[in-house]
Write a structure and sequence with these properties.
This protein is about 65% helix and about 0% strand. It is mainly α and about 130 residues long.
Amino acid sequence: MELTYVTIVVLASMVFALAGMVGYLYWQQTRMLQHIQSLSGVLSARVLQPQYEVETNQTAEPDVESEVEADLPEVEDDRVSVEEKTEVVEGPPDVDDIQTKTASQLRELLTTKGIPYGKRDSKSVLLQLLSATM
C-alpha cells in the first residue's frame, strides 16, 4: 500500500513540475512578444518616416541614427489617389411612384441613397426601407 502512495506522490510532483515549466515558457513567450512588438513599433516609426521629416531633423553633426537612415533604401509612396464620386440625387420620389417600381428598381434606388438592404429582402421590406428614409 505504501508503494502506491509513493507512486502517487512522485507522479503528482512530476505533474506539478511540468505545469510550472509550461507556465514559465508561456511567461517567457509573452515577454518576448511584447519586446518584439515594441521593437517593431520603434523600427516602423524610424523607417517609415516621411522624407521631409528626416531632412528637417538632421543636425550639423551626424549621429548613429542618421547613418542608419542613410543606409536604408528610400520608400516610394505607392498610394493611389481616390477621386470622390458626387452624384446628384433628385428629390425624393413620390410614394405612388415607388409602389409601381419593381424590386430590382427599388434596390437600385436604395443603393444610390446608400441605404443597406438584404439580398433576399422582399418588395414590401424594400418599400418600408424607402418610406422610412423619406
